[in-house]
Amino acid sequence: RKEVEQDPGPFNVPEGATVAFNCTYSNSASQSFFWYRQDCRKEPKLLMSVYSSGNEDGRFTAQLNRASQYISLLIRDSKLSDSATYLCSTGGADGLTFGKGTHLIIQP
Amino acid sequence: DAGVIQSPRHEVTEMGQEVTLRCKPISGHDYLFWYRQTMMRGLELLIYFNNNVPIDDSGMPEDRFSAKMPNASFSTLKIQPSEPRDSAVYFCASSLAGSGNTIYFGEGSWLTVV
């Protein structure tokens, strides 16, 4: 059974702080790795892909550790607008398996 | 560019009634996925199609659920008869082979069975 596990939170973080989430996955055959963002009562939207070499997009950095089967997301200088649920996902062409998400609340 | 389009956005129905959810994938995408999201179970993959052909329906919870994709631009997910435990958000998503397996979601169909 393919599983993706995340700490559900909530993470309450002051504006401007740095916050990091991890997730672990069980399917060692996974080919692709992503972080999606989901706002309340909205659909998940792609935040960024995750590569073994690590990748950065502005304030967001994602990292993949295949040996330990975990994925991380780092958010620097957090903004109020970063408040959302962050879903970790893995898979391939046969679809993605999602974690239940980590709820982030940025406080002013 | 138009994204994945789903209808209805919201539906409230009585137990025992038939429910049909509709989806139009992103034009040119060759994979279509149906997911269900609940607080308890999160996002679950129900079924996916490749080039209109159902490939894996192992996530479909029961025989009450069925899905079709008669052409590249339309798919349906049907529940007959519906039960209160089917209440959830049903997302359709699509992807394009060779694009790194990124999937794009529609806005979802919010189903309440009373």
Summarize the structure.
The complex is a heterodimer of chains A (108) and B (114). Chain A has 108 residues and is mostly beta strands.
Low-confidence stretches of chain A: none
- Summed over residues and divided by their number, the pLDDT of chain B gives a mean of 95
Q: Number of helix segments of chain B? A: 0
Round the mean pLDDT of chain A to the nearest integer and report it: 94
The shape of chain A, in one word, is globular
Distance between the termini of chain A: 41 Å
Oligomeric form of this entry? Answer: heterodimer
Rg of chain B, nearest Å:
13 Å
Q: Which outline of chain B best applies? A: globular
Q: C-alpha Rg of chain A, in Å?
A: 13 Å
Classify the beta-strand content of chain A into a percent band.
Answer: over 45%
**What is the straight-line distance between the termini of chain B?**
36 Å
Q: What is the helix fraction of residues of chain B, given as a range?
A: under 10%
Alpha-beta classification of chain A: mainly beta
Percent of residues in helices of chain A comes to under 10%
